[in-house]
Write a structure and sequence with these properties.
It is a single chain. With 388 residues, the protein is of the alpha/beta class. It has two domains: 12-144 and 338-360, NAD(P)-binding Rossmann-like Domain (Rossmann fold); 147-321 and 366-386, Dihydrodipicolinate Reductase, domain 2, CATH 3.30.360. It has helices at 26-35, 50-59, 71-80, 97-106, 121-134, 148-158, 186-189, 194-197, 202-217, 313-316, 329-349, 361-379; strands spanning 12-18, 39-45, 87-91, 110-113, 138-140, 165-173, 223-231, 243-250, 255-261, 271-277, 280-285, 291-296, 302-305, 385-386. The strands form two sheets. Strands 13-12-11-10-6-9-8-7-14 form a nine-stranded mixed β-sheet. The protein has a five-stranded parallel β-sheet with strand order 2-1-3-4-5, sandwiched between helices. A hairpin with a 5-residue loop joins strand 11 and strand 12 (291-296). The longest helix has 21 residues, at 329-349. The protein is globular. The chain starts with 11 loop residues before the first strand and ends with a strand. The model has no long low-confidence stretch (mean pLDDT 96). The chain binds nicotinamide-adenine-dinucleotide (NAD). Nicotinamide-adenine-dinucleotide (NAD) binds at residues 17-20, 23-25, 45, 47-48, 70-71, 91-94, 96, 114-115, 141, 143, 187, 205.
């Protein structure tokens, strides 16, 4: 059980780019990174507006002289300090991730980067090589993968409880953008601008999340080919889609699908993954993340609950409070940040003691690659394409 006692030698000195006042995702980065005392926030370039960023930084107790006007200044100045940052999180809009991540690696920093890592597989592979050369961690915040029941699903599949895997059904389909809300909301506006968001909207913003859950639960499944159809129900969003269906064939004969949507009117989040095997199925829904449905053919449905002794020990490692008390997205992200810190410490110490999985650079590359293949299929008339 995690209780906040030290589990790495020293908190990692950490900075942030973006995530300032009014941002959607900045607070969960900070509260997750700081929760288990594995990181210490000492610097930031929190905002595209330098003044507002500084004021914000000071308000969250970062020393004024370490609240920088932009990330370039931060990397340059921090590199010269004896106690300069060792890691940085990038929580800015999509179009900036590639250049900031590249600059951070050149400054020898470990990186936690928001998804998507970048826009093209060429860029993603370039970052992958750079991370290897520099021997730095690049973690990607596919935050839902930190939920305990995802680890439970991974263990159940690995231990053959489902039999041979046949079908993986995924969706992330919320209803918040059923209308053109971007007209009055700056945080949504960039999400439908191809210059800032890249070649897709919901495929990249939403579909890559359950896709990564499938990569965690089914690490040996490889996509062979896929077919994608995408729509812009709010016409002004074209060429970007606000709804998409992707069908996939895996190289072991299994099949999968991902429904990505921001126009599923009435739905809160609608992220689900159902893995169907020859003997049984499991299903996880992010609106009830403490439960995992386990359905054995011919038997009554079982609802497995977080924090209970019958779970695999690997899942219980992430426990923060006993079963019955709900845990949520903040705990899932904290689990990921703890994993990131273990990986960073291993590299800092030249050891490999912790050996934990985490969404790393490969997850970043795979997300970009999947979107690229989906767009290629959709824009050629929703045809089957070999997975490149
Ligand atoms: P947002 O528009 O709400 O906030 C962006 C923040 O970045 C603002 O504070 C802005 O001032 C700052 N910023 C922009 N450019 C900057 C720059 N060059 N230097 C410093 N600061 C800069 O965006 P958001 O919704 O918080 O999304 C940010 C990123 O997080 C996006 O890539 C998005 O896809 C991702 N995101 C991920 C999840 C997840 O579950 N992992 C959820 C939501 C958003």
């Amino acid at each position: 059980m995690i209780n906040g006692e030290k589990n790495i030698d020293e908190p990692i000195r950490w900075g942030m780019v973006g995530g300032g006042r009014g941002s959607q995702i900045g607070y969960i980065h900070r509260s997750s990174a700081l929760r288990d005392n594995n990181f210490k926030l000492v610097a930031g370039a929190f905002d595209i507006n330098a003044e507002r960023g500084k004021e914000f930084g000071v308000n969250i107790h970062v020393a004024e002289e370490r609240c920088y006007p932009d990330y370039k200044t931060m990397f340059e100045k921090e590199e010269k300090l004896e106690d300069g940052i060792q890691a940085v999180s990038i929580a800015t809009p999509n179009g900036t991730h590639y250049e900031i991540c590249k600059a951070a690696l050149h400054a020898n920093l470990h990186v936690v980067c928001e998804k998507p890592l970048c826009f093209t597989t060429e860029e993603a592979k370039e970052l992958e090589v750079l991370a290897k050369v520099k021997n730095r961690v690049v973690g990607i915040t596919y935050g839902y993968s930190g939920h305990q029941m995802i680890e439970q699903g991974r263990q159940m599949i690995a231990n053959g409880e489902l039999g041979e895997i046949r079908i993986v059904n995924m969706q992330f389909a919320h209803g918040f953008h059923s209308e053109a809300v971007e007209l009055d909301n700056p945080s949504t506006k960039w999400r439908v601008d191809p210059k800032i968001v890249g070649p897709s909207y919901v495929l990249g913003d939403l579909g890559t999340h359950p896709l990564y859950l499938s990569e965690v639960m089914l690490p040996h499944l490889n996509i062979k080919r896929l077919m994608c159809s995408r729509q812009s129900f709010v016409k002004s969003r074209a060429p970007l889609e606000d709804n998409a269906y992707t069908l996939m064939e895996y190289d072991n004969g299994a099949v999968g699908s991902v429904w990505s949507s921001a126009v599923n009117a009435g739905s809160m989040h609608g992220q689900k993954i159902r893995v169907i095997g020859s003997k049984a199925s499991i299903e996880w829904w992010d609106e009830q993340p403490n439960q995992l449905r386990f359905e054995i053919q011919g038997k009554p449905v079982q609802i497995l609950e977080r924090g209970m002794d019958y779970l695999y020990p690997e899942a219980l490692t992430d426990d923060r409070i006993g079963g019955g008390h709900p845990e949520g997205l903040f705990e899932a992200w904290s689990n990921l940040y703890t994993r990131f810190s273990f990986a960073m410490e291993d590299i800092n110490h030249g050891s490999n003691l912790n050996n934990v999985w985490y969404p790393g650079i490969k997850a970043g590359v795979e997300g970009v690659r999947w979107v690229e293949n989906c767009v290629r299929s959709a824009d050629n008339g929703a045809v089957w394409v070999e997975y490149k």
